[in-house]
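Practice problem 4.
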């Protein structure tokens, strides 16, 4: 298939791009700048330009941002929409998070409907943030759960709530678009929690590392030697598994019209540290003491990831494999 990937220099998107190529698809990726596009091409020197190229979309939140990007010859058959802001450096929740997420998602769907009638499958990166019902967790989370966050709460000034709101409203907007506009494509959404895994060396400096992996960097640099930071969500997925989920979502007919809660299960920062201690003895001096306590609660919600296994055929990587590969990748970029 010929596939458009939005936000190709993002952490998840970079892994999606590699897996699409491995599966024999042709890829065009959107990037914000020529420099980022060139970095992607340079990192794939043996891939011919008809198999991998890029187009520039400077600002996904601009009206009409994707109008030209979706046009292609030969035409696209599928789209992976991964581009969305994820950071807590927010001064204006509406402008910094909510608008880019919502307008970016509806904008690309409008552009596909208007200018890319050949596209039949769209997979969208959503988030566990759009499932989470904090502070009142259900007994078990699955795709049927939706974050009840309101617009007022999302714009109220708390960055975490604004982020969760941005993912929730963007995903709802996508499902609403399909229902109202009846386009000739189906959508699937992928809802991962914390995403860990090897960094893509050609896109990362240690300072600009994706938010999720920053904790592993901080551990191996000794920044958490005195005390571990809070774990947060307690469920995770390896970036290579969520990337494969995106690719399978456009390959597997049964994935159409479904959400997928993509998680490998539980983790805590204490477990991550112990994996590092066991596998990288030379880092011992940087790590918090072995008798530090885990913040994993005694009673925690269950997770039901059966749909991702049954329909997408995912076999989740272990935390050990993920963290070992992540540390090696961070060391390769200078950690």
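Answer key:
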């Amino acid at each position: 298939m010929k596939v458009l990937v939005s936000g190709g220099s993002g952490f998840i998107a970079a892994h999606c791009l590699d897996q699409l190529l491995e599966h024999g698809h042709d890829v065009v990726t959107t990037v914000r700048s020529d420099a980022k596009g060139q970095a992607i091409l340079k990192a794939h020197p043996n891939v011919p330009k008809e198999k991998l190229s890029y187009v520039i979309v400077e600002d996904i939140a601009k009206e009409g941002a994707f109008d030209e990007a979706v046009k292609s010859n030969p035409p696209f058959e599928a789209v992976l929409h991964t581009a969305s802001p994820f950071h807590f450096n927010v001064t204006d929740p509406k402008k910094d998070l909510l608008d880019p997420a919502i307008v970016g998602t509806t904008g690309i769907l409008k552009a596909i409907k208007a200018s890319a009638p050949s596209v039949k499958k769209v997979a969208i990166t959503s988030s566990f943030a759009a499932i989470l019902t904090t502070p009142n967790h259900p007994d078990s989370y699955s795709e049927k759960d939706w974050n009840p966050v309101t617009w007022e709460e999302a714009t109220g000034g708390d960055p975490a709530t604004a982020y969760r709101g941005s993912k929730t409203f963007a995903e709802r907007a996508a499902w609403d678009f399909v229902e109202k506009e009846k386009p000739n494509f189906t959508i699937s959404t992928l809802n991962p929690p914390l995403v860990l895994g090897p960094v893509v060396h050609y896109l990362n400096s240690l300072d600009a590392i994706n938010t999720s992996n920053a904790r592993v960097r901080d551990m191996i640099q000794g920044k958490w030697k005195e005390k571990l930071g809070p774990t947060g969500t307690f469920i995770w997925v390896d970036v290579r598994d969520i990337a494969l989920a995106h690719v399978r979502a456009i390959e597997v007919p049964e994935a159409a019209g479904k959400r997928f809660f993509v998680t490998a299960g539980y983790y805590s920062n204490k477990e991550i540290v112990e994996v590092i201690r066991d596998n990288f003895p030379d880092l011992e001096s940087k790590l918090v003491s072995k008798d530090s306590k885990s913040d994993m609660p005694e009673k925690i919600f269950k997770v039901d990831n059966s749909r991702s296994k049954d329909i997408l055929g995912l076999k989740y990587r272990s935390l050990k494999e993920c963290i070992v590969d992540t540390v090696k990748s961070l060391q390769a970029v200078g950690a």
